[in-house]
Design a protein that fits this description.
The complex is a heterotrimer of chains A (618), B (194) and C (489). In chain A, the strands form four sheets. In chain A, strands 1-2 form a two-stranded antiparallel ribbon. Chain A has a two-stranded antiparallel sheet with strand order 3-4. With 618 residues, chain A is mainly alpha-helical. In chain A, β1 and β2 form a beta hairpin. In chain A, 68% of the residues are buried. Chain B contains five helices and no strands. Chain C folds into four domains: 32 residues; 83 residues; 179 residues, Immunoglobulin-like, CATH 2.60.40; 136 residues, no CATH class. In chain C, the strands form three sheets. In chain C, strands 1, 2, 3, 4, 6 and 9 form a six-stranded mixed sheet that branches. A five-stranded mixed sheet of chain C has the order 5-11-10-7-8. A three-stranded mixed sheet of chain C has the order 12-13-14. In chain C, β12 and β13 form a beta hairpin. Chain C is elongated and about 120 Å long. Classes of the chains: A mainly alpha (618), B mainly alpha (194), C alpha/beta (489). Chains in contact: A-B, A-C. The interface between A and B is large, with 73 and 48 residues.
Amino acid sequence: MADINIVEKELVHGGHHDDHGHGDHEHHGDKYQSSFIDRYIFSQDHKTIGKQFLITGMLWAIIGAGMSIIFRLQLGFPDADMAWLQPLLGGWINIDPLTGLGEIDADFYYALVTMHGTILVFFVLTAGLSGTFSNLLIPLQIGARDMASPMMNMLSYWFFFLAGAILFISLFLNTGPFSGGWTGYPPLSALPQASDGSKAGATLWLLSLVFFVVSVLLGGINYISTILNMRTKGMSMFRMPLTIWAFLITAVLGLLSFPVLASGFFMLTFDRVLGTSFFLNEIFIAGEALTTRVGGSAILYQHLFWFLGHPEVYIIILPAMGLVSEVLSVHARKPIFGYKAMVFSILAIGVLSFLVWAHHMYMSGMNPFIANIFVLFTLIIAVPSAVKVFNWIATIWGGNLRLNSASLFSVGFVSMFISGGLTGIFLGNAAIDLQQHDTYFVVAHFHVVMGVAAFFGMFSGIYHWFPRMYGRFMNETLGKIHFWGTMIGAYAIFGPMHYLGMAGVPRRYYRFDKFQAFSEFTGMNEFMTIAAILTFLVQLLFVINFFYSIYRGRKQTEMNPWGATTLEWTAPINAGHGNWEGDIPEVHRWPYDLGRHGREFIMQTEPLAEGEVDGGHD
Amino acid sequence: MEMVTSPKKIRRVHPKKFALWTAIVSMLMLFSAFTSAYIVRKAASNWLSFPIVDEFFYSTGVILSSSVILHVAYKAFVAKNYALYRLLLTVGLGLGVLFVALQYMGWLTLNSDTYGIFISTNQSSSFFVLLVGTHALHVIGGITALMISWIYALKGSTKEWTPKGQLRLELTFTYWHFVDILWLYLLLFLWIQQ
Amino acid sequence: MGFTIGALCVILLAVFIVQIGKARELASIVRNDPAEQDEINKFQAGLGIIFMVSFLIVCVVSFIYYIPTTLGWGPNIAASLHGPEVDYLFNLTLFFTSIVFVLTHIALFGFVWKYKGKQGKLGLYWAHNETLEMVWMIIPSVVMTFLVVGGLQAWNNIMLDLPEDAVSVTLPEADGEYLEIEATGSQFLWFLRYPGRDGKIGTKYFTQIKKGVNPLGQTWTDEKNMDDFMTTEIVLPVGKPVRVRITARDVLHNFYIRDMRVKTDAVPGMPTYFNFTPTVTTDSMRRRLSKEPEWQVEDRNDDTKKRWEMFNYELACAELCGNGHYSMRNVVKIVSEEEYLDWLDEQEGGELEEVVADSASGSIEYTYMPGSVNSQYFSKVYNTAQDPLKGKTANLEKLVENKLRVNVYMNKMKDMRNEAEMGSVNYVRAEKAMNELKSLQKTARITTDIASSDKALAAAKAIADDVKMTLPVPVTVPQIDTIVSDTAK
């Protein structure tokens, strides 16, 4: 095709450093950000879009966590009177006409559990984590004015918003939102007659998530193109901060795995709406034999789902890991230990994450022989993860660690990732999973790694980059209370849960009292519920701190308040669209020259001195 | 461990073109998922084979020609032969629409008494609709993109005859060629499987 | 009301804390002391140490506290042959991971303390160390390899299906024999099916399901279905291999017996299986638990009983199947071979009607009631218009009849022994006869071969006759004689 060079020169975006035309007509209070709508609603500035993802993610986190409080009330106090919740939850509370006592409807319990999972895994930890930080940091850290396609970026947010709106609406349906678990296994999810939650609620759930997939793909495409094509002069791949590596691999994972989820959802939708039987075979339900619905396999769905499902959890944790690497290094005033090993670990985790999905399916009835491959790869993936943990600890060793909310959450992240990662080793081994599958051991494991560790990474990033976002600081006292409250609270909630799992108590149980074996843990359940309520309340401090600080936080007075080395701190405070006022800075060294040559930090933009070697030697 | 010591110019593919290729990769993953599931399912029992009726071969011809015509249209645009470009774009767009129509007509033929194949007749027909239908959806997306260029071309607006416009065209046509080649792959795949 | 007050308190507390936060920030800005961060670092790092120590202590203490309920610890042994292997792997992994857990946490918080920030200090410009990195890559790899190999060996052993030539019978005795039962998950109960004395589960198909009449959709033309009966409890003989054939009627379920370490999904349209051998009887487990203080308390449902007395193995569902997912419970009982045979008897049913034939001699006749076998077939289909097995039930009924008759002999001997004085001749004779009858009774109960069944009956009769004829004193118990009457319809 024709002359690329002509086309490129004339573009507004492109990060082409030798583009002298820029200087004169580039005034980055620019033409398509003039009105309120353009600036704040349909913004195409990556920084604003990042904030949109963050705030939307936070709102959903409150909703999702709020749901968990309600169902934890059921689990902790199954016989307590819930009638007082009726004004809020209406028909979802069944009131006994004789005694006046109220209980949470079982249907509703399962809907809450499903929505909680869906909201937190997708809306909060994927969109809210990757969406926020990839958008905020990629152009700033690689030296670009904005993403490859700001329009697509904007669309990525609004598709996320649309997905959220649809799921939100489903909460108010008469038959209720989807209740088949965030994993949505058919036939339960495919047959409306299997459960009320599999009626309209399931249709809206699928629709919402298809739009969500579009959002993720649009975002991911942008992130990859931007990182690979729009780095500033001197920013080679191995001079990129670890955050960028993490975002890049995350985006690649998303690109390759979300379409497979979409394929599963398409097929599920066909089964629900068009009478196909991709996942159905020999079913008798609601008094009727579904004679035309034969030939399918429920296990096929599980393969398609987990082909995304597993990379998904790495999509969640890798950005958090990237953020933590950055925060720890900056606040320890030391290079991240083993930068190259960290990069290769991210790559290894990325590749391996595609080879382990069926460890979620050991008990699914699939041919047990297949499990051999997946056990092998699952336990292999533990190695790069371990390397990263050791590297973080080694980063702290010999450092001069400044402890503030950001770095505390990073330290907390390491603790949580150790704890949660170690329990993964049990589950990866199929013979152990034989017993632990679908018990609270699994629930404890994934909550510690995702529900806590990933969140800690997110919090760490928010506290650290808040000045970059809003030109102000968040309150440190509140931040530290938030940290310690959450650190202790999270272990209080999920620590005991491991013992529940080790006692063989199954997950997704509305009540435990039907079984002798599972009804001995009332005290523990009460404790976990109370811990959950308290920890949830502590998060409100964070929310207040966040919003308050946007308007009244301590103002940022220097461009590089943390003494970091990376490019995002070379752009002015509260930078406008286009980030740098003059030319985009050039990069001459890797991002981890902290404590070198007797200097606390050396920015990436500083040229190498005579005879100085780049990258972690001497 | 070597680092880049002298700053290099970073210029590879144009970012937006790269973005399109990345998007194409994700779409390929979608169809890979479908075709893998197809292959695994076919290996199991109870699989009804049915012929690929003629309409699908006609439609293949149509989409191939549309790709060729649009390629020529692009060349015309670059050579600033805007009248020819407009004409060829119109034809190409029309052929695109014809493709979708032929796909649908092919499906109707399969529904007819001669074959009696419907979406839930057998797993094979369900997968067929899944593959052909999802592809058609992507073609409709391409048609939408073509229409945007077409409307600009009709208006004769000078906004279009810029490098930015050329880029948009390039991206649109690249996408169109993708759905074309994808169809070839799917047709071949389905034909061999029968 | 209480909720509103509670909410208000929380809001007030939050406002209070926020004010403190603001005040402290202001104070810090005003003070503008560069050494302040040093103090903060020290305080936070100190909190970190306190946290780490308390955390590790809590972990150890809580583990010890929960030993009584942790599977594989305390009294919670695995009650199956493969179970201990699963527990062993868990504990092995626990061993390795605990070491890592403790060491890394000490390092993490220890380094945070040791390297807490101080003004004027510089971080060490130390970015990598090949040796160190090798070491901490190799050690985890080695440990993982260990765990993988051990784990896969166990997995393949446990999950492998039985060899092609294995035979399913109602009571496994020889090598290569196993008992196959079927569990079908549905919303929201388990249908549990036993194969009956032929040892074979009959075929079924979902289009044949009819509520109440044929809940599983059994194919009545398949003779194997004739004797299949359904139960609400799973009763298994200890030490015998069992294969559970697991299916589902509507959505996914999961067949889960915790104490046996048995778990596999139930998938509609795709039968799955699990092979296991129960090794601990329910009674034995109860005795074990009776020694634990937690189990010596009163049972929560029946305060006349102790908790350990009410213990039962339980079958649960472990795959979300809808609103009733949490309520799919069935009791699983592991019993001795004797008890199992007794139970099979009850389940199989069949009926002999006692008829006093000749009032003068008082001799007793037993008439066999046709179609009185207790299976789904006999209760719902037998002799109806839909019965495709008309005329084919004779063999089974003969076998059941023979069994019942042998049971009668056994019972009579039992009665005689119980009536007699301990040590007396009658007692001894009856006891001897009972012992001789035991194996014959067993044969009659499980054989599917008419010839051996008839032989067993004849032998049993001979023993009974023998006792009657050699009794030194007149028999005062009801007549042992039974006249085999014509059971033709």
